[in-house]
Amino acid sequence: MSKPLNPPSSGMTPEVPASVGASASAAAVADPHIREERVPPTVPAADGPARRRTGPSGRWLLGLALLGGLALFAVLGPWWTGIDPAAQDLRQSLAPPSWAHPLGTDLLGRSVLSRLTHAARLSLLVAVMATLSAALPGVLLGLWAAWRGGTTERAVVMLADAMLALPALLLVLLFAALAPGELWALYAGLSLGLWVEYFRVSRAQARPVLHGPGVEAARLLGLSRWTVWRHHLLPAVWPVVARLLPLSVGQSVLSLSALGFIGVGMPPPTAELGLMMTEYLPHYEEAPWLLPAPIALLLLLVLGLWLVTSSDAAGADPSHDAEARP
């Protein structure tokens, strides 16, 4: 009579003969499918390079803090100072910085800090409005030209090339000559000179997307034009447009300041950065604290825009990390 086999108890590993274990290991080594099942998938480390690219960099945060501080200075500064930027007090002519006037006064006794806050508000407001007014029609026109193609696209491209033949600052000068001292003329000239850039970028980004398999499949399925634009074209164009927007704002502020500096911008006694530099330049020896104020504001604005745009581009381009990696 044969002896019955007892099943292994719970929690105990059954004994496997050495010959069976050796044959299973040999089969696992010989069969690649078995080896792939036993090897766990490679998971990138949580603190690896891929994760570092997705997070905001220190330069981007510093640039954003600078721009945010300037925006608060332009919005809340006039309310905080509470001084009329055109109020004159000849007894305080060219007064040095004090508690009443932290940045001193100019030749007519006007508070430099109050004029600086109003100038920052004016320049940023006109620059942002001009940029948005140029970006919206420029992007839509570029997408429409790429969508239609043919004669329509060539006609719009010829118009854009003709606009590029004229420098943007010259267009602003022409509008300023038509309506001297009018803010709308400067705004219209800036918008007219900026839309071409958005048209060319959006058209260049949309053309390969329109010839891609995603748009072709959407057309075969009979999806509407708005659906194709919303799911294919706009997501492809938006990253590039988002990088252009801060650069256009900075370009507009510098253009307004240049026009004010040469005397074709806003007329006195308007508080404007370029006009302030023109008024303070003759007194740089007797009142050296006047001229650095508008220059420092422009430098901080350009530095903030450069930090934001350069850090964003570095994080979005994988080749940048590959080149920077030793």
Element layout with pairings:
Blueprint: H1 18-30, H2 32-38, H3 49-54, H4 58-81, H5 112-148, H6 150-164, H7 168-178, H8 183-210, H9 213-220, H10 225-261, H11 273-280, H12 292-316, H13 318-324
Domain ABC transmembrane type-1: 120-309
Keywords: Cell membrane, Membrane, Transmembrane, Transmembrane helix, Transport
Organism: Roseateles amylovorans
Written overview of the protein:
The protein has 326 residues and is an all-alpha fold. It is 69% helix and 0% strand. The chain contains 13 helices and no strands. It has helices at 18-30, 32-38, 49-54, 58-81, 112-148, 150-164, 168-178, 183-210, 213-220, 225-261, 273-280, 292-316, 318-324. The termini are far apart. Residues 1-51 and 314-326 have low confidence and may be disordered.
Question: Can you give me a brief rundown of this structure?
Answer:
The protein has 13 helices and no strands. By secondary structure, it is mainly alpha-helical.
Name the descriptors.
326 residues, mainly alpha, 13 helices, elongated, disordered N terminus, transmembrane helix, transmembrane, membrane, transport, cell membrane
Please report the number of helical segments.
13
Mean pLDDT: 80
The arrangement of helices and strands along the chain is HHHHHHHHHHHHH
Radius of gyration: 32 Å
Q: Please, what is the oligomeric state?
A: single chain
N- and C-termini, Cα separation: 75 Å
Catalogue the unreliable spans.
1-51, 314-326
Instruction: Please give the largest β-sheet.
Output: none
Shape: elongated
Structural class: mainly alpha
Which percent range describes the beta-strand content?
under 5%
The percentage helix is: 55-70%
